[in-house]
């Protein structure tokens, strides 16, 4: 793998295919021409919203409202380096009256309005959420704890590791609100069938109302300390990847101004459970999407 500087570059790509993964989530497969793709599973790329003519007035309006330039958004790679094409998977963020201060800018057009043949500029690749050589050597097993679109970098890491190495067993605890929100449901089941004994997935749903869906494999509720304990066999020798929402800087700022305490976030509670269960910090890789 090259140095970070060599790896990060701007590239013009063309959308080859758009795959609907869930009602609000799409995988965008990208043609990169002859550009050499130098990335690791778990890395992300960034997309600058200023490049889309359809967003021009939104960008200007939001920049006026927020008093600062809209930054590029990060998207983890769904693809892994042993695959021919580059792909990202984007979940559409929602505007919730009285909760979110501004309408989300980029994810709605990426998830719902992207079409084959469209060109865009991406900048990649970087990110610390990777299964490093050191972590490989220090661990016997891998536990992934993900929520929502937080599955994306772990999905890349899991499939790459299963296909190209043989040492590690991976367990994925994957949290979503409802069954219909699960991303890569079919692909994860297929990986489990293809790699019996090396990959196991447990879903947990926080707001699903159809009781008939629940089983050993599809649990009810949030990721709890008990659920993690069930699948954490050896806290000191398990590499843990945690990816999902955390409180945003805006939420923290608002809570401080109003003098209220925020409920624990997905990331906050997972990290405190791991600490209580004795997982050393150097065995944990985390990425917050908030
Ligand atoms: C390393 C990394 C990897 C990621 N990978 C993925 C991925 O694989 N898939 C995926 O779907 N997403 C991923 N994300 C999230 C992604 O980068 C975007 O944050 C997401 O798509 C939302 O972008 P948006 O432009 O639609 O929304 P934004 O315009 O960024 O808005 C999001 C929320 O923030 C609020 N907000 C924005 N600006 C302000 C402000 N100034 N003050 C107060 N509130 C504000 C909005 O009201 C809204 O609720 C990743 C994030 C990171 C950091």
- The H-level CATH homologous superfamily of the largest domain, spelled out, is Nucleotide-binding domain of ferredoxin-NADP reductase (FNR) module
Low-confidence stretches: none
- CATH fold call of the largest domain: Rossmann fold
Question: Main beta sheet, described?
Answer: 6 strands, antiparallel
Distance between the termini: 29 Å
Question: Tell me, what's the shape?
Answer: globular
What can you tell me about this protein's structure?
The protein has 290 residues and is an alpha/beta fold. The chain has 2 domains: 4-126, Beta Barrel (Elongation Factor Tu (Ef-tu), domain 3), CATH 2.40.30.10; 133-288, Rossmann fold. It has 9 helices and 12 strands. It has helices spanning 4-7, 56-66, 107-112, 133-138, 151-164, 185-194, 225-231, 249-258, 266-276, and strands spanning 9-22, 25-31, 44-47, 73-76, 86-91, 119-126, 141-147, 169-176, 199-205, 218-220, 238-244, 284-288. The protein has a 6-stranded antiparallel beta sheet with strand order 4-3-6-1-2-5. Strands 10-9-8-7-11-12 form a 6-stranded parallel beta sheet, sandwiched between helices. Strand 7 (141-147), helix 5 and strand 8 form a beta-alpha-beta unit. The mean pLDDT is 95. The structure holds flavin-adenine dinucleotide (FAD). Residues 44, 66, 73-76, 88-91, 93, 100-102, 104-107, 127, 149, 152, 248, 250, 287, 289 line the site of flavin-adenine dinucleotide.
């Amino acid at each position: 793998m090259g140095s970070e500087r060599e790896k990060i570059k701007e590239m013009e790509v063309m959308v080859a295919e758009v795959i609907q993964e869930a009602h609000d989530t799409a995988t965008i497969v990208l043609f990169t021409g002859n550009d050499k793709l130098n990335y690791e599973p778990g890395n992300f790329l960034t997309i600058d919203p200023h490049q889309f003519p359809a967003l021009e007035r939104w960008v200007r309006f939001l920049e006026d409202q927020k008093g600062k330039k809209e930054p590029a958004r990060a998207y983890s790679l769904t693809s892994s380096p042993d695959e021919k094409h580059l792909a990202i998977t984007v979940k559409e963020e929602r505007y919730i009256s009285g909760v979110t201060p501004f309408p989300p800018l980029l994810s709605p057009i990426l998830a719902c309005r992207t079409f084959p043949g469209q060109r865009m500029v991406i900048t990649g690749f970087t990110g610390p959420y990777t299964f490093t050589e050191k972590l490989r050597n220090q661990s016997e097993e891998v536990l992934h704890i993900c929520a929502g679109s937080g599955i994306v970098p772990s999905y890349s890491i899991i499939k790459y590791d299963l296909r190209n190495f043989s040492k590690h067993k991976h367990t994925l605890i994957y949290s979503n609100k409802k069954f219909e929100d699960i991303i890569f449901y079919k692909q994860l089941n297929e990986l489990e069938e293809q790699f019996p004994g090396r990959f196991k997935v447990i879903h947990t749903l926080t707001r699903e109302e159809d009781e008939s869906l629940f089983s050993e494999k599809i649990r009810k509720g949030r990721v709890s300390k008990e659920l993690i304990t069930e699948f954490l066999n050896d806290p000191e020798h398990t590499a843990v990847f945690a990816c999902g929402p955390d409180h945003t800087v805006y939420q923290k700022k608002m809570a401080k101004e109003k003098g209220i305490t925020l409920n624990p976030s997905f990331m906050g509670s997972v990290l405190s459970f791991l600490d209580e269960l004795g997982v050393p910090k150097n065995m944990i890789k985390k990425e917050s999407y908030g």
